[in-house]
Write a structure and sequence with these properties.
mainly beta, Deoxyuridine 5'-Triphosphate Nucleotidohydrolase, Chain A, four-stranded antiparallel sheet, globular
Length: 172
């Protein structure tokens, strides 16, 4: 009966604004999902240990991405991420390894106050055209806590051993 109680509690939480579950160890943030189309796919964790929930394309016609081309792929989903968290859009390793397809602005950030449709920008770094079909798993969605820094202007910074050494300065 614990599962029924948990499900009932989750249903109650999901009817109001996005909140964080605080019922014990490992409490998880609740992300509310609005389907703009009834046929849209809710992000899903494909294994028990998955850190990312797979995001699927919601497109009327296949989209062909030529080599070195990019495409904005709709999902027909709008997310409500609770304050204090962000959604991260990350590539799927299998797409990258097999086809050279990745998420262009990776990781993409979905801010807690964004209420527009989730779109995924895919880029084909492979040598062959890549076709995206409706329902294809095209990215992963990871929820992460956000810490907002206090940003302060200053006239000087502390010295470090590295100093201004930038790209490649620490070796290979």
């Amino acid at each position: 009966m614990a599962d029924a109680a948990t499900a009932a509690g989750m249903a109650a939480v999901m009817t109001g604004p996005a909140t964080t579950r605080m019922n014990g160890p490992g409490a998880a943030p609740v992300v509310r999902v609005l389907k703009k189309e009834s046929s849209a796919f809710i992000p899903a964790y494909e294994t028990k240990g998955a850190a990312g929930a797979d995001i699927r394309a919601r497109i009327a016609e296949p989209v062909v991405i030529p080599p070195l081309g990019r495409a904005h792929i709709p999902t027909a989903l709008v997310l409500e991420i609770p304050p204090g968290y962000e959604g991260q859009v990350r590539p799927r390793s299998g797409l990258a390894a097999r086809s050279g397809v990745t998420v262009l602005n990776s990781p993409g950030t979905i801010d807690a106050d964004y209420r527009g449709e989730l779109g995924i920008i895919l880029v084909n770094l492979g040598q062959e055209p890549f076709t995206v079909h409706d329902g294809d798993r095209i990215a992963q969605f990871v929820v992460a806590p956000v810490i907002r820094a206090q940003i302060v202007e200053t006239d000087s910074l502390s010295e470090t051993e590295r100093g201004e050494g930038g790209f490649g300065s620490t070796g290979i």
